[in-house]
Design brief:
The chain is mainly alpha-helical and about 575 residues long. The chain contains 25 helices and 6 strands. It has a two-stranded antiparallel ribbon with strand order 1-2. Helix 4 runs antiparallel to helix 12, helix 10 crosses helix 16 and helix 19 runs parallel beside helix 22. The longest helix is centred in the middle third of the chain and has 36 residues. It is globular and about 75 Å long. It starts with a strand and ends in an 18-residue tail after the last helix.
Length: about 575
């Protein structure tokens, strides 16, 4: 939401002008509460519906390409160990993040703010997350362009443009449109995913046996190698930030109640960290299909998911194999790239709102994210897949592990507040616990990645990032005695109030719109309640509420008395 008329100073007898938002930014059917808490009134979907929509977003075929690249480079044994180890790390770090996002109705950026990074500290992670969305949009778009080239001979350069433009009308309309696309395309995707492996089971039953002794195409050999294992795990761990895209759906999970708690827990586990179980299976499956197709199409095309799909389907579908495989690839890539573009728009919105104190609306940042992704595609980033993803994972895992460490360790032992506080009015600009842990961990691991500390440190740079972030986050929180989590107390102690109190609305003194309690702060400058977005966009208040000045005294808002669960 961008303010088109900021509050102005007026004479004492006049009422200050109310902030108004641009039409697109004010339309929550498109905005989906992009910079704020998702209210209970908006969470209309059932746990199973939210989970199904979230899992629809992992239809991507980058897993096929990543798995094939890992096994081709490092051999089957080391590749298998890498894929499984990365999946275990992603699953474990994803559990607390998924539960927090679903419980508090917050996206990954807002969770990061309150989980050890601070208000401006999470700005850097918004960039990390945005880079994840456009890197993987470019990767998925490249795969889709390859499919269109195979199917109709369209030059890949034009294919890149089409794959970029095709998602805009869907993403522009928000979560409702994304949910419909995921549901409608799911049957086609499931058939296309399973059919090649069914054909292989009947037509090449010995393929798996031959695959298990595959030594790769780079001379790695079929045996296990520690450096190969470390490097392969680093590539697979580049997907760790996928939990952020899952969170963009999980924040719409309905409140957990006694009636739905079992379905809620299963849905959150499946749609949150559970994605990586399917993802790891897809990596191994993609590597198997690429191995079977290697002799027929050569290494370069075997790494492109469309060619192995065609080769696998030929025995049963013959001349129809090409259009069938192309349809599957195109559907898969649309399913994931609408999510990449959507999540990217959220991340850029969060980033620029803090820097500029303006918010023209989530939809405009779609074009920024897609422009960067299109540039990467035209630069043929697909050719440098392993190196790019291996580098990115050093930063991504430091961020995600630091957040997970705060949620699992710091909050349980009382080093940080027991709830997620995301509002500017109550946060320090930077919290050294999470932010410092991430910066130190990623810096050391990147130096290791470039070989500064030797061969083994280079191979295990992502493990260094994870280990340092996991240890440093609670250590720094302990050394600082948790001082930098809250700049001042929240008068209602955050979301730890009864559901009836949470859903009661309070009108923002700036934009005169009613919001649920978790989205409201007490503002001494406005002498009343202010919504989290208006608070973020205020460039004139000087953070008076956090500085202990005369203007920062307590303000009576008529808010409910806090209750603890």
């Amino acid at each position: 939401m961008t303010d088109t008329a900021a509050p102005v100073t007026s004479a004492p007898e006049e009422q200050p002008a109310k902030r108004s938002y641009a039409r697109l930014a004010a339309d929550e059917s498109r905005e989906d509460y992009s910079l704020r808490y998702a209210p209970h009134s908006f969470r209309r979907w059932s746990p199973s519906m939210v989970a199904g929509t979230a899992l629809g977003g992992i239809a991507y075929l980058a897993d096929f390409a990543i798995g094939a690249s890992i096994v081709f480079t490092y051999g089957f044994t080391s590749g298998l160990a890498s894929i499984l180890c990365a999946a275990a790390i992603i699953f474990l770090t994803g559990i607390p993040i998924a539960r927090a996002c679903a419980k508090y109705g917050l996206d990954m950026d807002l969770i990061t703010r309150g989980a050890g990074f601070g208000y401006f500290g999470s700005t850097l992670t918004s960039l990390i997350y945005a880079s994840f969305t456009f890197i993987f949009f470019a990767l998925e778009g490249s795969i889709m362009a390859q499919a269109m080239h195979q199917a109709i001979g369209l030059p890949v350069e034009f294919g890149y443009l089409i794959t970029t433009l095709i998602v805009i009308p869907i993403v522009f309309r928000g979560m409702g449109a994304l949910a419909k696309v995921q549901v409608w395309t799911q049957p086609i995707w499931l058939i296309g995913l399973v059919l090649p492996f069914v054909v292989l089971a009947f037509e090449a039953p010995d393929a798996w046996g031959r695959f298990t002794s595959f030594g790769g195409t780079e001379g790695a050999g079929p045996g296990f190698s520690w450096p190969a294992f470390g490097l392969g795990t680093g590539v697979a761990l580049s997907l760790i930030a996928q939990i952020g895209e899952q969170a963009d759906y999980l924040r719409f999970m309905p409140a957990k109640t006694e009636q739905n708690k079992h379905r809620w827990n299963i849905a959150v586990l499946a749609a949150g960290p559970g994605w990586v179980i399917i993802g790891a299976a897809k990596q191994l499956g993609g590597a198997l299909l690429a191995f079977v197709a290697l002799e027929a199409v050569g290494k370069t095309h075997a790494l492109e998911p469309i060619a192995p799909q065609i080769e696998a389907l030929k025995p049963w579908l013959g001349s129809v194999a090409l259009p069938a495989a192309a349809l599957f690839v195109i559907v898969s890539q649309i399913k994931i790239n609408v999510t990449n573009a959507y999540s990217g728009s959220l991340s850029w919105s969060n980033f620029f709102s803090r820097l500029t104190h303006k918010h023209p609306g989530r939809v405009w940042y779609i074009f920024l994210n897609l422009a960067i992704a299109l540039t990467l595609m035209e630069m043929n980033m697909f050719a440098a897949l392993n190196k790019l993803l291996g580098f990115y994972s050093n930063v991504g895992i430091a961020w995600i592990t630091a957040v997970a460490a705060d949620l699992v360790i710091n909050k349980r032992i009382g080093l940080s507040p027991p709830y997620i506080e995301f509002k500017r009015a109550y946060l320090y600009a930077v919290n050294p616990a999470g932010f410092g842990a991430m910066v130190i961990a990623s810096t050391v691991s990147i130096l290791a990645f470039f070989g500064l500390f030797g061969e083994y440190a280079q191979a295990f740079s992502t493990f260094i990032a994870a280990g340092l972030a996991l240890a440093l986050c609670p250590l720094i929180a302990w050394l600082t005695k948790g001082k930098y989590y809250l700049a001042r107390p929240n008068p209602v102690n955050g979301p730890h109030v009864l559901v009836d109190d949470i859903t009661a609305t309070h009108s923002c003194a700036v934009c005169d719109t009613a919001y649920e309690l978790p989205d409201i702060a007490d503002c001494p400058v406005q002498a009343g309640p202010i919504c989290s977005l208006c608070c973020s966009l205020d460039a004139e208040c000087g953070d008076a509420c956090r500085k202990g000045g005369a203007a920062s005294g307590p303000v009576s808002l008529g808010l409910p008395t806090p209750h603890r669960n």
